[in-house]
Design a protein that fits this description.
The structure holds two protein chains of two kinds.
Chain A: E1 6-16, E2 22-33, E3 38-42, H1 49-57, E4 64-69, E5 72-73, E6 81-84, H2 96-107, H3 113-126, H4 142-155, E7 160-164, H5 172-189, E8 192-197, H6 200-206, E9 209-213, E10 221-226, H7 244-265, E11 276-277, H8 295-302
Parallel strand pairs in A: 3-8, 3-9, 6-7, 7-8, 10-11
Antiparallel strand pairs in A: 1-2, 1-4, 4-5, 9-10
Helix pairs in contact in A: 2-3, 2-4, 3-4, 4-5
Chain B: H1 2-29, H2 39-44, H3 47-50, H4 59-71, H5 84-115, H6 117-130, H7 139-146, H8 149-174, H9 178-186, H10 191-229, H11 234-243, H12 247-275
Helix pairs in contact in B: 4-12, 5-6, 5-8, 5-10, 5-11, 7-8, 8-10, 10-11, 10-12, 11-12
Classes of the chains: A alpha/beta, B mainly alpha.
Chain lengths: 303, 279
Amino acid sequence: MTDKFISIEGIAKRYPGADGGTTAVFENFWLSMSRGEFGCVIGHSGCGKTTVLNILAGLDEPSEGAVIVDGQAIEGTSLDRAVIFQSHALLPWRTVLGNVAYAVTSKWRNWDRAKVKAHAQTFIDLVGLTGSEHKRPSELSGGMKQRVGIARALSITPKIMLMDEPFSALDALTRGTLQDEVRRICLETGQTAFMITHDVDEAIYLADKIFLMTNGPGAVLAEVVENPLPKDRGRIDLHRHPYYYALRNHIVDFLVSRSKIFVAENPGHDPRHVPVVRPGLNEPAIVAPPRPVDVNSAQAIAR
Amino acid sequence: MSASLRLRAAIVSIALFAVFIGIWHIATRQTAAVGNMSPEYAKLMGVTATQGKSAMPGPLDVGAKLWEHLKRPFYDNGPNDKGLGIQLGYSIARVGLGYLIAVLVAIPLGFLIGMSPLMSKALDPFIQVLKPISPLAWMPLALYTIKDSSISAIFVIFICSVWPMLLNTAFGVASVRKEWINVARTLEVGTIRRAFTVILPAAAPTILTGMRISIGIAWLVIVAAEMLVGGTGIGYFVWNEWNNLSITNVIIAILTIGVVGMLLDQILARFARMVTFPE
């Protein structure tokens, strides 16, 4: 289980700054995942999450360092790494079937029409869009569009699925259904998945490992949180599990306060050996008592 | 609601047309004083001088003449007397040929400019200088180098219709959504296949808009170009009928130029609708 299926090794991303210097979004960034794992990155906007994902996808290049997937350094994009885009990115002039078939023909160039269609149909059925094959993206709801995006990504049977906040533009109900679908598909197929999210509950439900990133610029991977909840967790009773609030509070605490001060408080933080934590029953150990409200200052503000 | 609006608009259009025809008819009906002249002299003069009739034809004259033209559009009585259909045919053929060559040049070149920031920057000064030149200013140069008036006219059509297509294609190609390009990249789609399967469909509405602007300009320019080169075509017809002092034929030519221009525009509009995709 300790094999590194994905290994991000010391990557940095720098942009030219306004005053001639460079601004580093992150430096010396290390991250690894095993085969079949579901990893979620959580961090505030601007911490470089999307940049990490784009580098992993091959859409962006690191200023330094390398990414190794399945024993090979990646170079550019690959059909082994499918991306599910936040904005679904369907080609609006193609039908649902056309969009999925486009991916299929890109991977298997010499397949005949019937074979491509049958293969695409399998994945359209898998995401529950049977009957909508000949609709165009403009005729679909946001959730259905994202289902097509998922079908397109899965249809090329990638080694890794990369998801950049895939459900953030959807309403809560649709988001829940799609999370269920993604979880089901990943468990059934043993898919390795890497996802960026803002949603703590999404991360808890889906991820095996949650990567906590501090605020950028100069963001670091602060902690790897192992999900202590059982693999067969369900959406309905997730929040009743004894570890649920321990895990949730740990992540929320990080996002609310520790993400800002982590770098300053941990000068000896080794980005190569990021602490792995597994929140248990005794977390959160200390909850600071609520501060008494200063009546005078509150009145001053009201005035 | 929409049907009734269309109906009301049609009624207003017809009313406006009737008013226009009426005013035209009344304005050209009046007669001026006729001076005394010897019959010998009167034979040499037109009806304006002998009967005091207005030189400007009325709607009925134009209608009668138009009917004559429509009955025999393709007669050919020698170089200065050809049917309206033949003249229009020449003009449309010139526009079609010049426009087609412009499409073949502008769209690939526009792709190059749109896809390559280097070429975009390198070609920009040339385009900026060449674009505002009146196409007719090229005519003497074309006549001198090509030494054929008909091909010169085609060249002028080419040069005037190439710019809107070129610029629109370059703009459409350059502004294809990044995410669609990224989809193609993650699917390892090669450059050529990407150009045809992602960039072309995505930029097609913008390209067609450029093509529609171009056909309009080409049709505007052909009339002027044919007035210069002469021989055949609707532009030559206008000028020839002016020299014949046949205002009726000039009006008919103006009318047909408008109708054909509208048809050309509608054809391109239909193509544009075919490639437009809802988002």
